[in-house]
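Running co-folding for flavin-adenine dinucleotide.
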Amino acid sequence: MGTQYDLTSKYDLAVIGGGVIGLSIAAQCAKNGWRVCVIDRDRIGKESSWAGAGILPAGASGLADDPIEQLRQLSDTLHAQWAEWLYELTRIDTEYQRCGGLYIARSPAERATMRANCLWWQELGIEYEPWSIDQVLSRCPMLEPQSLADPSTQSTSRVDFYWVQRDAQVRNPRHLIALKAACQTLGVCLIEQAKELSLQADGTSIQSIAFTPDEPGNRVKIVADRVCLATGAWTGPLLKTLGIETGIYPVRGQMQLYRFDRPPFACVVNEGHRYMVPRKDGRVLVGSCEEEVGFHKENTQEMMDQLADWASSLCPMIRRVPLEMQWSGLRPGSIDGFPYLGTLHPYTNGYIAAGHFRHGLHWSTATAVLMEQHMRGQKPLIDLEPFRLHRGNVS
Ligand SMILES: Cc1cc2nc3c(=O)[nH]c(=O)nc-3n(C[C@H](O)[C@H](O)[C@H](O)COP(=O)(O)OP(=O)(O)OC[C@H]3O[C@@H](n4cnc5c(N)ncnc54)[C@H](O)[C@@H]3O)c2cc1C
């Protein structure tokens, strides 16, 4: 059966892209009365937002000057509220929890990075504690002492441990299902399998969005007062059709999912860019990596071996439980690490919310609230100027 949608009237907002960013914006705007549609060329909520780990590192407790920290801080506050709101609306538990984060630094380079990180945490008022091996083992008995040794010296005295109590996680596939269900409850029209999507513009106004629907037939057109692009890693090719360049590019991350009978530890375990994320049902995610390989979404044996070696070097039990799944996703990398949030100049009714790189699940709540304020012509809670589309690295 094809998607049912109303082509006879105008939407207040059409969001292109049904990942966590597009769905969050749609839900936020529909909650406050707008008639919204979300158009995706594939299935909603199945790209990077599904592939991610759902780690939500703690936000600043004081006033943050840095625009990224402001985004993190607002998101941190909003995630707790959104988990409750989504549960009330949909009865879906997204497993949002302040599970805490353990940071391990075994190499000299990682120890130096973590010490710099501690200074940053202090400046932001993020509480952390240096931990001893005994504290680590009482919290995470499945991590074995010999496995926590610096591989070159076999001594745990050269390993640094830090604990951040306020680090959180959300089970992102469930968060997406909840967002989708919330959108449906709020009357958002969700259009999937919209192929060969194009934007028709007249001067500085986007007039309509055309696409070929999932069932063979004529092209259809959607008309909306505002159009917001939330197309993740694929934003560059779409914008190119409008003659606009962005600094957004795909960065592949590979993942593994192991199945324990019950969670081997309760917190997120981090070391550099690698992590293990325990879910409540005993599944443990192991990730990840940053690979610039274009739009190629597959797993490589080499990376699967590296992830398994790393995880089992900390938690040898991993070698004895089934590897349930492996996958990869394309993060929307941005050239300066900042997402693009704001108006899609030169179009006065076009908007962009893309390029969240490793943080889109985290920053999705703040993005939704700020984008709604911006699109309504209100002053956003956080100044969006540093996130503008044309900021020196793009033309
Ligand atoms: C391995 C991995 C681990 C991660 N871990 C974390 C984490 O722990 N914490 C965190 O905060 N973030 C994490 N991320 C990053 C996060 O997942 C992304 O930043 C976020 O999902 C981006 O959301 P999005 O909605 O912009 O993109 P996506 O989820 O990729 O959605 C984009 C959507 O746009 C659609 N689309 C694209 N082009 C078109 C078109 N032309 N027409 C119509 N539709 C189109 C796609 O089909 C897709 O559904 C991780 C990512 C990966 C890959």
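Result summary
The radius of gyration is 22 Å.
The mean pLDDT is 94.
Job closed.
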